[in-house]
Amino acid sequence: MSNWVIEAHDLQKTFAWTPVLNSIACCIRPGASVGIFGPNGAGKTTLLRLFATLLKPTAGTLTLFGVDPLDPAIRRKIGFLGHDSFLYPDLTPEENLTFYGKAYNLPNLADRIDKRLEQVGLEDWRAMPVRHFSRGMEQRLGLARALLHEPDLFLLDEPYTGLDTSAVAILDDTLTNAKAQGKTVVLSSHDFDQSRDLLSQAIILNRGHIAWQSGDALPSAQEFIQIYRSCTHHTVPC
Amino acid sequence: MKKYSPFNYVILPWLTAAAMLTALAMVFLYVPNERVQGAAQRIFYIHLPSAWMAFLGFFIVAGASAAFLWQGKRSADLLAQAAAEVGMVFCTLVLLTGPIWARPIWGVWWTWDPRLTMTLVLWLIYAAYVLLRVFAGDTETVARYAAVLGIIGVIDIPILYIAIRLWRGIHPKVEQMAPEMAWTLLVCTGAFVCLFTWLLWLRLQSLHLRNDIIGLRKHILVSL
Amino acid sequence: MLAILWKDILLELRTKERVSSLLLLAMLIVLVFVFALNPEQLKDPALGAALLWIALIFAGMLSVQRAFILEHERNCIDGLLLCPIDPGQFFFAKFLSNVFFLILVEAIVTPLTIALLGIPFSASLLGLPLVLLLGIVGFSALGTLFSAMTVRTPAREILLPLMLLPLLVPLLIAVVQVTGALLAGDVWTGVWLRVLVAFDVIFVITSWLTFGFVLQE
User: Fold this and answer.
1) Rounded to 5 degrees, what are φ and ψ at A142?
2) Contact at CB, A72 and C73, closer than 8 angstroms
3) Do residue C154 and residue B135 have CB atoms under 8 angstroms apart?
4) Which chains form contacts with chain A, at 3 or more CB pairs under 8 Å?
5) What is the CATH number of the domain that holds A84?
6) Tell me, what's the ipTM?
7) Domain-wise residue ranges, chain B
């Protein structure tokens, strides 16, 4: 079905010849906001990186927007925000964004850059090399970079970790806007409470398997904690 | 897990032993002294087949590397690794027997003639391949890097040969061989092929076993 | 692709560390030779050729590694992999950037070396830029490919020369032979030139084709 944004069947990924992800099967609709939860080492980052085409699956099938992820053109629609900011520390924000803009072949680059910088509140620092930024500022610039090409699919790996309050507010705003525009959001997190308002679906990963998937109905915070506890203390998916 | 195959476990080692013994006998007892070079020339029967095996090893590495890049099967990668190690052993043998031969004949331990130089560079490429795996660890990524190295190495060999030939000249050329010598060479080559195959198979077995054990260990750890 | 090239050059302008360290290294190597030998020995064209290329190889190793180490800070490699660029383009961008920096360094080091060694000027020296270019191209092709590999491995400073140098032997032989001939005032023989061109063509294409495998995870 090419209506799915992300479609995965029997997905497997091995590192050093050991499976890190096994038999992952999920389908994500356009416009959905999915939260991926699970203990450390469950494979959340690996899964997100697979979706972002940064990793190639060892086995199984993965299609993004109905297309093979190996096609470079599909990356135009994907925005990824990970632990690292992917910014060159010796260049200024303006130069960094110009570079990425050119790499994506974006029209009206100067305007876009202005808009993004304003959106993340870094207008005043556009000419200062990123090396001198605080971590929060760098995160915000990273967000600007991820948004620059206006992707249809947002993939965020624990985006709230290490953010200061203003950055959290900006991130929340951005994601709410994206949702309103009908874009698809997939993020991984440790905190269900914080992201519950934003999400429409939740997945729990444990030891490389999908332990539980919510349907269209998100549980309450309490229920979720119960489910989470029961799923991650057993070795068999429930 | 590889199946128990009587050919590999029983026939091959005995065949190799028999072939090697025959070869040795022929080298020392059967073949006559070479006219110009005398007794020292007998090392040629080890030197030349070793060189052939060194090159054979490299071609296996290249083939297995291409197969690995194409299909991603672990067995192709292990074959490349085993072939590289065994090939390197034979390459070392060539580099050792070369000087042993050269000293009594030409009076020097080493000359920069085309074939020896080429074998030296081949040895260095082998060393790079083996050390890459040693230093960089055992992951799919490293296996892919090694495969690329293997393929580039094999492409490099013809150019290397041409360049070295253009640069330098001599290496004992085999002009005419008495029939006894030809037979001895044939038997030696056959023996070396058996030896190569057997060593390759041994190494491959040990690599597969190691692979299985590590897999089992990780499996156990994960399910605890 | 051009964007990456532009970015590399911009980075270099900002930090100035790559070109300066390459120049320094190359000149140091030349100096060591100058200290070790007397003026008559230095005039030997074969020595001059060897020296030039030793300096270039060492500087080149450094240069080609820097190209990828810069990407590794803040994991920018992932940022680049996210762009809709296919691996071949990525290869050419890095390859051209490497060639560019090496040309820059050689443009300064070569005349200086010739002057310092006291090698007499002759018309055949005009052929030097071509040889240098061919050598740099071949070096950069394999250098880009292998430095992309080693940047992720722990023992990268050992591994890169180990892997690269044996494979570069044909290039080295050809290039030193021609340079030696040129420095001596002779005209070069066409056959070495053909070897060089063949090497360059074969390895630029091979590296371009296999780069995708190296980037993939």
Assistant:
1) -60, -40
2) no
3) yes
4) B, C
5) 3.40.50.300
6) 0.86
7) 39-222
